[in-house]
Amino acid sequence: MSRLREFFSRINGPQTFGSGPRFWIPLGVLLLIAYVFPLFSDDYTIGNVAYFFTWLFMAAGLCLMWGYGGTLSFGQTAFFGIGGYTYGIVTLNFGADNGVTIYALVASVLLGAIVATLLGYFLFYGRINGVFLGIVTLAVSILLERFMAQTAGPQWRIGEARLNGFNGMNGMPALTIPWPGGDISLPAGAGFYYVILSILLIVYFGIRILVNSRFGNILVAIRENPQRAEMLGYDVRRFQLGAFVIGSALASLSGVFYTCWGQYITPSSMSLTSAALPIVWVAIGGRGDITASLLGALLTLAVFQTLTVNGAQYALIMMGVLLLVNVLTAPEGLILQLFRFRFKLSPRSQ
Amino acid sequence: MDIASAIFGFLYQIGDAAAFLVLASAGLAVVFGMMGVINMAHGEFIMFGAYGTAMAVRAGLPLPLAIAAGSLATGVIGVIIERLVICRLYGRPLDTIVATWGISLIFSQGTLILLGSSFPSAGTPLGSFTVGAYSYSWYRLILMLAAIVLLVGLWLLVNRTRFGILARATIQMPQMAEALGVKTRVVYSLTFGLGAALAGLTGGLYAPTMTMVPTMGSTFILEAFVTVVVGGADVFLGTAPAAGALGITKAIFTSWQGQLTGQIALLVAVILVIRLLPRGLSGWILKERS
Amino acid sequence: MSLLQTIDLNKSFGGLHVTNHVNLAIAAGEIHCLIGPNGAGKSTLFRLLLGEYLPSSGKILYDGEDITRLKPFQRVARGLSVKFQVPGIFKGLSVRQNLEIALQARFKQRALQAESDRLLHFLHLESNAVDRAGNLSHGQQQWLEIGMAMSLQPRLLLLDEPTAGMSPEETEATGEMVISLNRSGITILAVEHDMDFVRQVAQRVTVLHFGKIFAQGTVDEIIANDEVAEIYLGEPTYAA
C-alpha cells in the first residue's frame, strides 16, 4: 500500500512545477471546465479542441526528451507520420470491427517505439548528441517525407492500403470501440474528445510521476552534466535512449489520434516546416516543465489557428517573431516565466 | 564516340551536383565551421541574393553586376542580423537553431507578403551545347567554374588577407585576440556577414536557373547542412571534398533511379557519416595526418 | 596488495606519445599523489584510469580484475569514484538534489533523506540545501562534488586537482577532509600541483615527466630529490 502511495506521491517533485493547492486548485478547475464544456458547445468547437489535443502528445514527448533530457530531436514529425500511416494501413486492411482500430492504435505506437529504439541505439550508443543528433533526426524526418511523397501510383501499397504519394492516405475508419449491441464509432466529436482528453491526462500524470522518479532525476542530471552522471555510475546512453523511445512513441500516438480525427494523413506532416512546429510550441511554453510545455503548446496552437483564419500569411510570420522574442527574452519559455513570477520562485529551486 | 559522350555526361552531372553543393554550403560552412553557429535562415539568405539579383537585373544591371549587388545586399543583412540576434546567443547552439528558425520564418513569410508568391526571373543566359545525344547548358558549366573560383577566393581570403588571419585568431582564441587589440565584435559581425554574402552569391548565381519563390531557400538548405556536416569544421579540408564525394553519390543515384533517390541517398549518407566519422571528413583527415 | 595497477600503459594521440610505459601501483588504503610539471601527462593518465580514454596499449587492473576495456560507469560500479578539476556538479539543480542523485543508486526513500541530511551536515552545506548548486562559492562547489564522489562509498577515490582555485584555508580544510576519508578506509589517488597539500596528505608520491614515471617515494624523499626540483624549475634547488 505504501509503495502505491509512494508511486503517486511522485506527481509532485523537483522536476515539476506546482505542488500545493495554489497550483492544483486552478488546474483542477481547468480540468473540470475541460470535461464539462462539451455539454455547452457545438460539435465543431469540440472537434477543434480535440484537434489541438492530438498534437499535445507530441509536445509532451518533446518536452520529456528536450526539456528534461537535453536532447533536441527534430524527429517527432517522423514518428508522427509512422503512427498515422501505420494506423491507416492496419485499418484500411482490416476494417474497424472487433476492436481492430484499437489494435491499430497500439500497433502504431509500438512500431514507433521500435523504430525509436533502433534509431536511438544508433544515435546514443554511437555517442551522437547535440547539434548532430538534431541534424540526423531532421534528415530522418525529411527522408520519410520525401520517400512517402513519391509513392503515388498503384504499385505503392501495403495490402489494401495505397500510400498515395503526395496526396496521402485517407478514408481510414475513425476510432471504434467494440460494444455489445453495436460498435461505437468516434469521429471528431464529443466521444472522441473525451477519449483523447482522458488519455492526455493519463499521459500528463504519467510524465509527472516519471520525471520525479529516479529515472527523472538521472535524466535531468544527464542534461546538466552528462560526464558527472556517468561518473556516478549511470549508463547515460541507456537513459537517453529510454527518454527518446518514450518521447518518440508519444509522437506516434499524436499521429494516430490525428489520423483518427481527420481520417487522413499526408507526407507534408513530416516536412521541414512541420518538423519545426513542435519545437515552437514547447519552446514558447517552457520546455523545462511539462505543465508549461502543454499549456504553451495549447496556447500557441490556438493563436496560430486564429491567425491562420484571419490572415494565413501573417500566421507564420507571427510564429517566427514569437519564436525569436521567446528565445531572446524568455528562453526558458513564456509560460514557465509566468509560473515563476506568479509562484515567486527563484530559478530551479523549490 | 558514344562512350566518350556518356562519360562526359556523367562527369557533367557530377560537376553540376558538386558545384551545387559547394555553392549551397560555402556560406553555411563559414558560419558553422568557423563560428559554430547553426544558421537555419541560410536558405533565406540565398533567397535574398536571388531576389536582389533579379531586382537588379530588372533595374538594368548586367547579370554579373546584379549578382554582386545581390550578394552585397545580403551580406549587409547578415551583419545586421548578427548584431541584433546572433551575438546574444553565442555558446547556446540549440537556442541559436530556434532563433534562426524564427528568423527564417520571418524572412520567407515576409517576402511572401511583400513581394507575392513568385517573382519574375531572368532567363538562363548563354544557351546550350550538345555532346552526343544530349544538350547541356553553358551556364551550368559556368556555375561549376564559379564554385572553383569561390573556393580559391575563400582560401585566399582566409589564409592570405589580414581579415582572414584576424578572423581565424579571433574565432580560435577570442580573449587572446581581444588582448591584442582586435575588435572581436566587428570580426564576428563581418564573418557572419561573409557567410551571408556567400549565400547571397549562391542565390544570385542560381537565380537565372530557378523559379523565384519566397521558399526557394528550402531547395538548398538541407543539402547545405548535409555537406557541412559531412565535411566537418574545416571549410577547405572538409566542405570541398564532401561536396565532391556527395556530388558523386548524388549523381550515381540520380542517374540510376531519379532525382528523389539521389536526394534520399544524400540524406542516408549524412546519417552514416555522422555515425562513422563524428567529426566529419575534415576531422578524420586531420586525425589521420597527425 | 595493489588496489589499482597499470601494466605498461601507453597512450598516443596521433604522433604524440602522451603516456609512456607507465607502471603504477596504488596500494589499498594509501593516499597517493601524482605530481609533475605541466604537460607531463597527469591529466591523460587520470582519464585513462577513469575510462574516458582507451589506452593504445597496456592494461589496467583494479583489485586484480582487468578493467582496461570497461566503460566509466562500469568502473564506478566496481568502487571507483572521481572528483574533477572543474566542479562536476549539476549546477541547475539544488544542492540536496545533487546529493540525492549520487545517493539514489544505493538508498531508498527514507534512508535517502537521512543520508543526504548527514552528508549536508558533513559538508557544512546544510543551510544551502535548497539553493541552486551553481550559486555556491567555488570552494563549496568543490566540497559538494567531493561529497557526491564519496556518497558512492568508493574504495578508490580519484581526485583531479582538488584544491584548484582554493584559498590556503580552504586547501587545508580539504586536506583534513581527505585524511578523514582515508581513515574511513578509502584509498585516494590525487593529481595535484599544490605542494602544501601534497605535504599535508600524501603517503606516497609519483612524479610524472614527459609521460613517464620519473620518480617515486615518500613526500620527504621526493622533496629532497634534486632531479625532481630540476624538472620543475630547470635548476637545482634546496629544500626549504
Task: Give a written overview of the molecule.
- The complex is a heterotrimer of chains A (350), B (290) and C (240).
- Chain A is mainly alpha-helical and 350 residues long.
- Chain A has a domain at 43-269.
- In chain A, 70% of the residues lie in helices and 4% in strands.
- Chain A contains 13 helices and six strands.
- Chain A has helices at residues 2-9, 21-36, 43-68, 76-94, 100-124, 130-149, 190-211, 214-224, 226-231, 236-262, 272-285, 290-329, 334-343; strands spanning 157-158, 161-162, 169-170, 175-177, 184-186, 264-265.
- Chain A has a two-stranded antiparallel ribbon with strand order 1-2. Chain A has a two-stranded antiparallel sheet with strand order 3-6. A two-stranded antiparallel ribbon of chain A has the order 4-5.
- In chain A, helix 12 (290-329) packs across helix 13 (334-343).
- The longest helix of chain A is centred in the last third of the chain and has 40 residues, at 290-329.
- Chain B is mainly alpha-helical.
- Chain B has one domain (2-214).
- Chain B contains twelve helices and two strands; from the N terminus they run H-H-H-H-E-E-H-H-H-H-H-H-H-H.
- Chain B has helices spanning 2-35, 42-58, 63-84, 93-115, 138-160, 162-172, 174-179, 184-206, 217-231, 235-257, 259-276, 280-289, and strands spanning 128-131, 134-137.
- Chain B has a two-stranded antiparallel sheet with strand order 1-2.
- In chain B, a hairpin with a 2-residue loop joins strand 1 (128-131) and strand 2.
- Residues 235-240 of chain C have low confidence and may be disordered.
- Chain C is globular, with a radius of gyration of 18 Å.
- In chain C, helix 3 (95-103) packs across helix 4, helix 3 (95-103) packs parallel to helix 5 and helix 6 (168-183) runs parallel beside helix 7.
- In chain C, the strands form two sheets. Chain C has a six-stranded mixed beta sheet with strand order 7-8-9-4-10-11, sandwiched between helices. In chain C, strands 1, 2, 3, 5 and 6 form a five-stranded antiparallel beta sheet that branches.
- Chain C has helices spanning 42-50, 72-77, 95-103, 109-122, 138-151, 168-183, 195-201, 219-224, 226-233, and strands spanning 2-13, 16-22, 25-27, 31-35, 57-62, 65-66, 80-83, 156-160, 187-191, 204-209, 212-217.
- Chain C starts with a strand and ends in a 7-residue tail after the last helix.
- Chains in contact: A-B, A-C, B-C.
- Chains A and B meet through helix 6, helix 11 and helix 12 of A and helix 4, helix 9 and helix 11 of B.
